[in-house]
Structure formats: structure tokens, C-alpha cells
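Q: Here's a chain of 290 amino acids. Please give me its 3D structure as C-alpha cells.
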Amino acid sequence: MDSQKPSAAQVGKTENVEVAAGTGTTMSRPAEVAEAASEPASERQPERDPKKISPNSEAAFARLSRREILKVAPVLLLGAFALPSLQESLLKRGLGFSDWASKRLFRQGHLAPTFEDSDLTPVDMFPINDYDVDDPGVILESWSLTVSGAVQRPGEYKLSQIQSLTHIRQNTRHVCVEGWDVIGRFGGARLSDFLNMIGADTSARFISVSCADDYYESLDMATALHPQTLLCYEMYDQPLTREHGAPLRLNIPTKIGYKQAKYLTDLKVTNILDKVGYWEDQGYSEFYGL
């Protein structure tokens, strides 16, 4: 056995040997550890705990995972809604995006569900819903629908002229924004057939209607041309009653209830809307497809 002791330089480069207290056994440490231990405490570089890095530093943001950011996003969005100055703008943007997406998804050939006669809500249980009065006092005998805008044959149209068009009956669901829905039986003429009768420019963007109770509404042209959109003058195979919108109302099973205006007096084909709709102008959805 070689009894020659290693030099101090060799010890620094290879290993540092020490005796574990109370055991008499020896343990070795790498040279780098030994060098660090020999440095004065004041000259050592303090170890940096990554958890204690300032949250404002780039390193902290780099440590955020995509999942963590997504967790925070809803909280930030809710916080934005809590600011009164941002609420209206955010709601308008949200409704605008919803209407844009709904219009993109709308298809003229896609029909709303229809039902058997056995599924109908009894007529006396069909809710009477209006925004002002149940009966605005229309004089039915002298009533006419005033047509204007981008049409070849503007003027006054009697109910008998509308009734001369192909008669359609359909059992469809009426959905109210208030949360209720019923299945009713509606009869009338397709709005698309009436638009053809008056020579409407169907490349125009909108149909707007005014009503005897001062209600007003509008439809995009694609909805107006949908085969289930009716100028409705019947319910349950009987003439429309005053409470349900006599003599003429809209029946649009692809749309929410407030789009289905009653007591129609005026119809206009246009590219520009001065007013969208009674409820829409108070912040409701313009399209609201079902």
C-alpha cells in the first residue's frame, strides 16, 4: 500500500475528505463543493429562489403556463364587466358578434321543426303577448298594408290580395324571450310570395314593418325569403283575433317571438334601417335566430 500523502493541490482538484461526526467514517465531496465551502460567506453569491422572483419580471411571466393564463382570463373579463364605463361597449360587441355568427349559420333551406295537431297548445292557452295594448283598435273593414321602398309596385294592399296568394298552414313553436314557448297552428301567405307580388328588390338587405300599436320591427332579407316566414292572417284555422294581431301579423318560426310583429300597417324594402326594432333599439339581439 502506497503510504505517500497527496499534496494540497491534488486534494483541491480531486476530493475533500472529512470525518462524519460521531461515526469515524469518511465521506467525500466534489471539489467544487469544497471550494464553495472554503469561500468567505460575504463573498458567496446568494442562491435565487425562482418562486421569489418579482412577479413583474419577464422571468415570472415566462413561467406562466398557457393553462394558468386561461384560468386568469375569465376573472379579468368579469372585472372588465364590473366597470360601468366598459359594460355597454362589451355587451354591444358581444351581441354584434352573436348576430354576425347567427347570420352566417342561417340557411334558407333549413326548416324549423313542425308538429302534429296532437302536439298543439290549446288556443285558449296560447298566451296573449304585446308590448302596449291588447287591441289598438284597427278598423278591420278599411285596413290595408302600405308598401314602400325598393319595390316595383308600391301602394296599398288589401287583405284579400294577400289572401289570394298560396295559402300555407304550419304547426310551429313560438318561443318568447321571457322564457315560455308554445306550439301553435298558423296560416297565411309566404312573405316571399308577397315580395314577388309587389316586385321587391330581393337584393336589398332588409324588410321593415310598422304596426298599429306603434311597435316596429325588421328582418334581414334571408329571413324574409325563408319558406316558413308568413304574413299570418289565421290561427287554428280561424281568422286572426284582435288579441293575436288582427288582421295581419308576422309568423317566423326561425326567430324569437319579439321579431313576430302584430297589427301590421306598413312594410318597406330597404338597404338602410333608421330603426332596427322596438326591443333591439333597447339592446336586444337584432337577429336572434332559433
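Q: Can you summarize the key feature?
A: The radius of gyration is 38 Å.
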